[in-house]
Amino acid sequence: MITLLKGPRRPSPAPHGTPLISVRDAVVEFRDRRILDGIGLDIRTGEVLAIVGPNGAGQSTLLPVITGDAELVRGTVSVDGAAWHAWSGRELAMRRAVLLQQVDVSFPFTALEVAEMGRSPWANLPESQHDDRIVAGALARTETQSFTARKYSSLSGGERARVALSRVLAQTAAAMLLDEPTAALDIRHQETVLTTARQYAQTGCAVVVIIHDLDLAGAYADRVAVLSDGRIVADGTPEDVFTAPLLSHVYDYPVTVVPDPTTGAPVIVPVRTPKEETP
Amino acid sequence: MTVRTHTAQDAAAAEAPGTRPAPPAPGPAQAADDWHDHGSPRRGARAARPAPPVERKRGAGRTPVSLLFLVLTALLVVTTLTSAMIGQLFIPPLEVIGSFFRGLGFTFSWLPAPSQEFGHEALWEVRFPRVAMTVLVGAALAIAGALMQGIFGNPLAEPGVVGVSSGAAVGASFAILFGFTFAGSFTVPLFAFVCGLATTALVYMLARANGRTEVVTLILTGVAVNAVAGAAISFIVFKAPTQAREQIVFWQMGSFNGSRWEQVSIILPIIVVASLLALLLARQLDLLALGEKSARHLGVNVERLRIIAMVYVALLVSAAVAFAGIIAFVGLVVPHLIRMLIGPGHRALLPASLLGGSVLLVIADLGARTLVEFADLPIGMLTSLVGGPFFFYLLRRSRAAPGGWG
């Protein structure tokens, strides 16, 4: 009744570095198998957090934990200072936008219509007066303006991923969670997507990127969390976390870390044998 | 230290050059400028690009929504008028209109009254209630179909999937078999209505596990319940005496023969209220097209949306079939056609389906009354006969098109 009278509670402004989503001691099990074991993670405003780890380390379970979709055996998830279930679905949607790995649309909606769906948490609120501007901005950021009238289902995988991202950008949530946003993209769009993510964070929002490409994580993330066997084994700046011993151990493959020639960010190079010596 | 705040609204908007109001407002606009001030390697290139116009682009090959509504409304007027004109007694259009207004209490001197004897009575006692029933039932079936396809995210769903129609048929057959008459002539419709609702509830409860319903489970549960309902109907038909058997068989084929104003007054409020409430779900149904998870991330309570929509579907279809019997394919074909014309957005699709369903069923009923002289064909048979092949054609066509359904 109170929400009906007052309308949804908007996210409160917070200075850079404020934890927006906090995961504490989260344990997730699936049929006796422990997938996440005691995860503690803060998602802070003004920061791009990259979550990396080998296949099967638990990234695809960690995302639903952060979004409040997974059932925890133990632990808590709080959003904007309250337990996630204290918020209505719409209030949560104002606080976190989620880009899933693959988004299929079941009816022939156009790319523009899909992007506009991102505005729905703000429908009938004063914020919705800027809908057109925000959607146009989101489409421009993902360079998808040229095919707004085309059906989403007729787009290529990379185009779909970018339209889906513009939908998430248009949601203008305080936190943006991206699950492998660069998987289907070429090198140019990989870079623009992560640049966009950085800029989104710099306006005072929080960004989480689950990503396999360690070089992209090293170049664009403010903070990296390394997941291994359901635990976070390292959490810090890319420079601190991306060390050859740690990564070689976690990925069970020898790597070397070299600085990027222009930015100095860590670049991870697997130790390879020259072609002619390959057994 | 500068303290910046959540300004995602501006963050996303900032990149639409030329659309930002100038001069930039203080406060939030400050953060918008941060987009440009911080580390974008391609900043120069972006600034040089021309401003994209913020215009509402219609999907390629779509009909304007307002045009479709105009055409459908015009069609509805023309088809209902035609249906009222034609019958054993032909009544010219102006006389039909004159009689219509006279019956409502408005007498216009320039509109003639029906010239034939009992023309006015024939219209008001036989044809008008029948046309009104047809309009209501068509609208109910079509919007129920659109709702169903929306909540299942599947263009092949129709109300029959969750057992509404077969449940109603069991109820009607049961009442006919035992010759119940405690509610007078409304006994059979009452049984049909209640059993339609009950069967939907049963399907839903059986499909529910751990507080959630998977679409596939729901559809397969519907298949199972439909099979049992089919068996129940067969058994009742098998046991029933000849006259009751005939009545059951005809009920299942659907007909508007013998429609009366009392029937209209019973189903009118149910269908109007359920349809209006269903229109409020349009935006959420759009979001459901992104999949359950993404819809939830956008603030949709998916489970509640499903329950509410299924209650509306059960009410609409039970009310529609209670008096008219089973009329197939309207709920499947109409939303489909509308979607092909104006796209899948439910805010236009739902009301357009209402109109389209009415138009289609008025035409079908006119055919049922007039195709064979002195015979009132079962309308359910007619809609299936035409709807089946037409649906097959749609199927082939949309599978051939890039991007599928549309």
Describe the structure.
- The complex is a heterodimer of chains A (279) and B (406).
- Chain A has 279 residues and is α/β, with parallel strands linked by helices.
- Chain A has one domain: P-loop containing nucleotide triphosphate hydrolases (Rossmann fold, 3-Layer(aba) Sandwich), CATH 3.40.50.300.
- Chain A has ten helices and twelve strands.
- In chain A, strand 4 and strand 5 form a beta hairpin.
- The longest helix of chain A is centred in the C-terminal third of the chain and has 16 residues.
- Chain A is globular.
- Chain A starts with a helix and ends in a 9-residue tail after the last strand.
- The model of chain A has no long low-confidence stretch (mean pLDDT 91).
- By secondary structure, chain B is mostly helical.
- Chain B has a domain of 283 residues: ABC transporter involved in vitamin B12 uptake, BtuC (Orthogonal Bundle).
- Chain B is built from 17 helices and two strands.
- In chain B, strand 1 and strand 2 form a beta hairpin.
- The longest helix of chain B is centred in the middle third of the chain and has 34 residues.
- About 10% of the residues of chain B have low confidence.
- At the A-B interface, helix 3, strand 6, helix 4, helix 5 and helix 6 of A face helix 1, helix 2, helix 12 and helix 13 of B.
